[in-house]
Amino acid sequence: MEISRLMPVLGGVATRRLLVNVTSRRALDEAVASGLLVRVNRGRYAVPGVHEGTELALKVTGHVCLVSAALSHGWKVKSVPDVPQIAVPKDRRIDDATRSRMEVIWADLGDDQVEGLATDASKTLEMCGRRLPFDEALAIADSALRDGFPRQDLLDLAGAAKGPGSARLRRVAAHADPRAANPFESVLRAIAIDVAGLRVEPQVRVRGALDLDVRPDLVDRHLKIVLEADSFEWHGDRAALRRDARRYDLLVVNGWTVLRFAWEDVMHDQDWVRSVLTSAVERTQRARRADAPA
């Protein structure tokens, strides 16, 4: 797959190792040379909007924020914004030509809330939690925790929040989990959280008969339901396909319901995904009631 089509699936940020594995060294070098990718820190590359955002922030004396700031911190995101998101002081005037190149967020930021030309990690998480849809904010929060942002700091930040969006921020903080592998999995978990009766956790170890010993993407231990975010990142050859087939078969014969979801459906057809999850929960609950002793 071409890198320009690959990066949105990978969350807008990827390591050199992963990019080389799924494309080639030559493809990566060409993408960097042509401006399709920019290096954000050692061994990590992002979409070019990261650099464009800092240039625009400098021009309007503002700061990169929201999803654009998350990308500048090297965090993975559900979707890359079409134009950089820039926080600008409320009294700042911007000409129409410049404004058309960015999404303006009117906000007065303190010196302790910025880092260079972007909002710092804490302010980025706060703004994302308050303003973004739950699945987008959860993907960013998961990535931040995975990258080393302390979970307790996120909980403290949310607990102290007041005003518009504070309840949304607290919900994101309560569910954020560094065990989530990528935005694909985070968004699938966000959908599952809204399904009544379903309680999934990421990367839970499952053991059973016939040497079953796996860590599926998402697991509901009580209902014995497994959700898998099927991505080409881990299915690149016949050996990987065989391993996956075996693990799914072993889960099924051990009494687990296994649901596999494609990236396109999780990102772009969430109503369908939610309906499948709801039906699976209802089916499992009906079967348990039928098997219960009279």
UniProtKB/TrEMBL annotation:
Q: Which domain of life is it from?
A: Bacteria
Q: Where is the DUF559 domain?
A: 217-275
Instruction: Kindly give the Pfam families that the UniProt entry links to this protein.
Output: DUF559
Q: What is this protein called?
A: DUF559 domain-containing protein
What species does this protein belong to? Nocardioides astragali
What is the taxonomic lineage of the source species?
Bacteria, Bacillati, Actinomycetota, Actinomycetes, Propionibacteriales
